[in-house]
Amino acid sequence: MKKRIYTAAGLFLAAALVLGGCGKEKVPESEFATADEAKEALTSAETIEIYFDLYGSKRKTKIVADGKVAGYLQKNTVYINEEEWFSIDYVEDEPINDREGSGTTYGYYDASGTCLGYAQEQYVDTSYGKDTRLIFLDVDETPLDYQSSRSGRILYDENDEEIGSGKIGRSGVSLLDQWYTNLYCAVFKTETDGTRQIDFMDRMAMLWRLERDYRSIDDNPVNTGVQIYETVAVVFVLILLIGSSFSKWRQKKKN
Questions:
Q1: Nearest CA to 168 among 216, 213, 120?
Q2: Which of 28, 90, 102, 183 could crosslink 72 through cysteines, CB 3.0-4.6 Å?
Q3: ∠128-193-72 over CA atoms, to 5°?
Q4: 122, 147 contact by CB (below 8 A)
């Protein structure tokens, strides 16, 4: 009987460690030969997938360009292999915030803190009247030749034509992750003839907009620890019950 209890306890511990992600988390490695190739792919790809924890910041999640892993995201920083590329953050005390008709501003910064560009909500003229858009600007605050809807769901070119989309969902997320984590996937698609370039940093600004709106709709995160151990506890009880029933069956058979 003791042997069965120890075995069940061992299975309980093993299940808890597996579901809880015990051990050092594996870093998603780029499938491109060099960091420059990965960056180029993230700029020109027709489909970008960014996996992220909607309610956490410690997890390392992969970034995929046209089906190939190009890097990973941890909190607000993008890495290629284990080398930092850039971080995105809110801009609070820079002159760009003084623009008339502007709202939330996001800045992109390299590992040394040097600004690489911006995305800013601006109230602008569009083909159908005034609207708030997410305007992308270079480090000199010059607007680029594309912009996004405020929500991050539609990408427009310089002629105000729709050239891309963004959405959040669980597509591509494993069933185990769907049950026990807050892992989601943002998918950005762009109509391209192979020449259009969309800076990946701007994708991160669109992601932040999508995340913010999604949280306002789905504000019931998975309580990972509680749900994992509730499941493991149920499994543990089932193992004990099955073990006890088997023991009684064997004893009855002997008699």
A1: 213
A2: 28
A3: 90
A4: no
